[in-house]
Each structure stands twice: as C-alpha cells, then as structure tokens.
Amino acid sequence: MSTPTLTTATALWSAILFDLDGTITDSAPGITASLARTFEILGRPVPNDAELLAYVGPPLLDSFRERAGMSEEQAWEAINTYRADYNGSAIDTAVYPGVAGLLERIHAAGVPLALATSKPESVATRILENFGLDRYFDVICGATDDESRSAKADVVAEAVRRLTAQGVDVSRTVMVGDRSYDTVGAAANGIPTILVEWGYGSPAEAVDAIGTVYSTDQLAKKLLG
After folding, report:
1. Helix intervals (H) in 60-171
2. Which end of the chain has less neighbouring CB within 10 Å, N or C?
3. Res. 11: pLDDT tops 60
4. What pLDDT is recorded for position 5?
5. What gap in Å lies between CA 169 and CA 153, rounded to an integer?
6. Which keywords does this Swiss-Prot/TrEMBL entry list (predicted)?
7. Is 154 one of the annotated active-site residues of the chain?
C-alpha cells in the first residue's frame, strides 16, 4: 500500500478505517470507572485518573501486565473481572459531536468503511448498533475474546483482509484514530493515519501521523476532499 504525504491526504481514499474509543465514542469515563472497580475487587491499589486513562487504547491484557506488573494468570483474572463489570454498561457512552454525520457522509460517498478497534469485537458491535452507526460500516473488526487478536496491527490486518474479501480496493486505505497505537498498528500494514485531537492521545503521539485534525469538518476535508 502506498503511504501518501499530508499534501495528498485530501484525495479520495479507497477505504477508511476508524478506531472506536476516543475517535467515535467518548468511552473513557465508563472504561476507567470499571477499571477502578476491577482493581478494588482484586484488592489492588487503584491507579489515579491519569494512570487509568493510559489504559484506554492499547490491549488491556498488555496493560495489566506492563502497567500493573501482573503475571499472565493475574492479568487474565483482571480481564475477566473487568469484562464482568464493563460489558453490561458498555453502551453507556457518547458519540462525539459531528462524528455520526461524518460517517453518514462517507457512506453516502461510497467509500468503504471498517472499524478497527482493540475493544472486543462483540462489544464494539453492540456499541455501534446502539447508536445506529453499524449501518455505515462494511466491516466491524475488533479483538477476539481470547485476546489472540488484540494488538492493533493484527486488528488492522484482519479489517483489511475482510475488506479485500468483499472486493474492496485497499490500495489507498487510511486509518483514523487518536493514539500512537493507531499509527503504529496501521503503519505495520503500510497504512497512514490521521489523528483526531478530541481523543485521548497527547500531542507527542502525533509524530508519525500524516496529520492531526481538530474538528469533524477538518476530518471530512482530509477524507473526502
């Protein structure tokens, strides 16, 4: 796949991948609340708000191991505890202003859309369905429940594979996300990334993106020209 420069990012893309948390939905409040309860249930010190926010984006299994210093067994216990708490309230989130309208415009323009998230695919699907956004996506791809596919690079690869299986031209695909995990995961598949400022990433995370946008109007121009 070619990697366009920022100056060519306004050309019509052949396919667009979207992240979910921090890009389409403002899901951090619900995620961090469930994480805090998870640490409490497990009898572990609860990280502060900034530390909890760092868990939003990357695969949770990795975060429990790397950030909380858990063993594999402990991390799986934490994952199962978190899911039991979070999955029932996962749809209690909010879509960022303007995003639903943008997805509708992309769909109407005939540009294939795929969701590529490290959130479990079943949960991501429920969230999109709850807001009536699933109708805009040709592919909804997320992590597997057993975490065998959770790294962003693997999720992006699977999303592209499914698009290709549908006959979609993926030669000019772009990723839209909010964290460095999105840019790194997309880059592993030869795909450039546009980062949105309204998510959970820091300015430093935009270093490898082809651009950062501050509104859905700006994003629309980058995606639709």
Report:
1. 60-66, 72-86, 99-108, 121-130, 152-165
2. C
3. no
4. 40
5. 19
6. Kinase, Transferase, Tyrosine-protein kinase
7. no
